[in-house]
Amino acid sequence: MGAIAAEIAVDPGRVESDLWALAALVEADLPGWTRTALGPVDREARELVLRWMADAGLETTVDGAGNIVGRLRGAGATGRSLMVGSHTDTVVGGGRFDGIVGVVGAIEAVRALREAGRELEHDLVVVDFFSEEPNEFGLSCLGSRAMVGELTAEHLGLLDDRGRTLADALAEIGIDASALLGAHVDFSGVDAFLELHIEQGPYLEQQGSQIGLVESITGVSRFRALFTGRADHAGTAPMGLRHDAGCAAAGTVLAVERIAGEGVQTRGTSGQVTFTPAAVNVVTARADFRGEFRGPEGEWLRQAQEQLTAAAQDEGRQRGVGVEVDWLPLQEPAPMSGPVLSALAGVVDGLGYSSSRLFSGAEHDAAVIARKVPSGMIFVPSHDGRSHCPEEWTDLVDVTAGVTTLTHALLALDQQ
Ligand SMILES: [Zn+2]
């Protein structure tokens, strides 16, 4: 570790105990380390974060979108700020590091700066973004989207499988949907945003790098396709006379794989397909299919949407099955800021960490905030690239290197 790290001490023991305290808050009836944003436990986690922020000396608020926000006043009294944060919610069956590394890391950065007596000129705003992972309504980055003013009444009317609206689901956990639409922030005074996160892929480990500097974050395009056929007897209905919604959906699953396989750094995933009636001896009457494409180019995502819609309609036509494909608003790929990336690279070199630049195939709040503020992401390695599973692991020494990088990056950006 280089000389500049010596002045400011991130406490690895504190980072570790905070990580385990948050990770331990799980929904007991679900697999892995599950803490879904609309579930009962995430609120507890966010209340814990709120207390930690207050203990670290931050002025705390919960905004209309459920984001936990802490502010450390800067010496400059310029009204300008730096923002840093990540999320505490997880996917179902997720791991112990996704999201919380960046929340714990940001709070630890505040503690380390204060303990070293280093006052920033900028205000430092720490955010635990609400509901980053895709929820039952197919929406991700709810808190950050609300902050940048991208959510509409239409989003609040989205339905889950139980026929509940997003507004109702939010009300159940104490978030008033009308306040959520009013939660947008004036970002004109924010000079930079940083997010520390686990890589969730194998690249840094393969490169032997301690730190990853993200050049851009993937775009995401999600859809819901509904195939409506006809239930028939599995034994008596001849193959040529069936209207099998399941087969039309299955053909479309393969189209997702084919379309994504033809692109560069592009991905396509058929995450959820439900057949109704789910019976071994009945031809499928209805298939509800949710999937997504990702890639570094918005233009490719738009082409993939057209190709997939056409493929689904073709699969339906061949079988006399009705097809409806709805695309959620496309999340454009997000390039990270060149100047922020340069500042991060300087900090990493000064600290003596090995680093690589990379593309993030995972979406992040930073991709949303980057639409308003010059942004950067710091990645730390994931063992075997595993993530969104209970095996997700990052060595504590790597988490500490990430937190140290984040802390020094705040100082570097403060001086720009
Ligand atoms: Zn995450």
Any descriptors?
single chain; 416 residues; alpha/beta; Aminopeptidase; Alpha-Beta Plaits; 2 domains; nine-stranded mixed beta sheet; 21% strand; binds zinc ion
Task: Characterize this entry briefly.
This protein has helices at residues 12-23, 42-55, 100-115, 142-147, 153-156, 166-172, 177-181, 203-207, 245-261, 298-319, 338-351, 365-369, 396-414, and strands at 59-62, 68-72, 81-87, 123-129, 190-198, 211-217, 219-228, 267-276, 286-295, 322-327, 334-335, 355-360, 375-380.
What can you see in these coordinates?
The protein has 416 residues and is an alpha/beta fold. It has two domains: 3-218 and 333-414, Zn peptidases (Aminopeptidase, 3-Layer(aba) Sandwich); 220-327, Alpha-Beta Plaits. The chain is built from 13 helices and 13 strands. Strands 1, 2, 3, 4, 5, 6, 11, 12 and 13 form a nine-stranded mixed beta sheet that branches. A four-stranded antiparallel beta sheet has the order 8-9-7-10, with helices on one face. Helix 3 links the parallel strand 3 and strand 4 (123-129). Helix 11 packs across helix 13. Residues 87, 98-99, 132, 197 line the site of zinc ion.
Topology:
Layout: H1 12-23, H2 42-55, E1 59-62, E2 68-72, E3 81-87, H3 100-115, E4 123-129, H4 142-147, H5 153-156, H6 166-172, H7 177-181, E5 190-198, H8 203-207, E6 211-217, E7 219-228, H9 245-261, E8 267-276, E9 286-295, H10 298-319, E10 322-327, E11 334-335, H11 338-351, E12 355-360, H12 365-369, E13 375-380, H13 396-414
The structure holds zinc ion.
Residues 87, 98-99, 132, 197 line the site of zinc ion (ZN).
